[in-house]
Amino acid sequence: MPTTLTFITESIAQFTVGVFQEFDLEASGGTPPYIFQIVQGNLPNGLTLNNSGKISGTPTSSGLSTPFFKLTDSAGDHLTQAMEVRVEEAEVDPTSSTLTFITESIPMFTVGVFQEFDLEASGGTTPYLFEITQGSLPSGLTFDSSGKISGTADSPGTSTAYFKVTDSAGDNLTQAMEISVTESTESADGGAAKANRAN
Description:
Elements: E1 6-7, E2 15-16, E3 21-24, E4 27-28, E5 34-40, E6 47-49, E7 54-57, E8 63-65, E9 68-73, E10 78-82, E11 85-88, H1 94-97, E12 100-101, E13 109-110, E14 114-118, E15 121-122, E16 128-135, E17 141-143, E18 148-152, E19 157-167, E20 172-182, H2 185-198
Parallel strand pairs: 2-11, 13-20
Antiparallel strand pairs: 1-4, 3-7, 5-9, 6-7, 8-11, 9-10, 12-15, 14-18, 16-19, 17-18, 19-20
């Protein structure tokens, strides 16, 4: 004689925003196999329930919901039970996840000399995308999305550019930095020599 149909599962493990997880509802008694379904309420966004009782998915937001789960065995007997499904925000370690610039200043460039310099960032979710949102680089220099400043500056001077770093999660940070270009020593010496020859 079959035993009374019942839920073994009394509570559902907690889910975490942005993390794929699975949890199986379990039952006993009655006449297996069983079919599970939700007859009232809903799972949190990002989670689904299949007929075998598996809750799975990646929750998109925190919160608490209380759906009614219906268990039906192959003989047609059924049982309904409400259970809480809770989703919490992922724990964040501010020392490792806060997006920040490692680069605090940019070395000086020299007129007529090809040079390269890489901006660096840390935290957030790699990879990063760099761009200039305001201002510009000195003439002759270019900037790419990996954060590389490169080129051959063609005139001395100082400019200020606003560099924006965006991580793959969409978090972003903007920082202004100066880029200075100086005359090369060789150019200055050559100019002095020409002046002396002229005299």
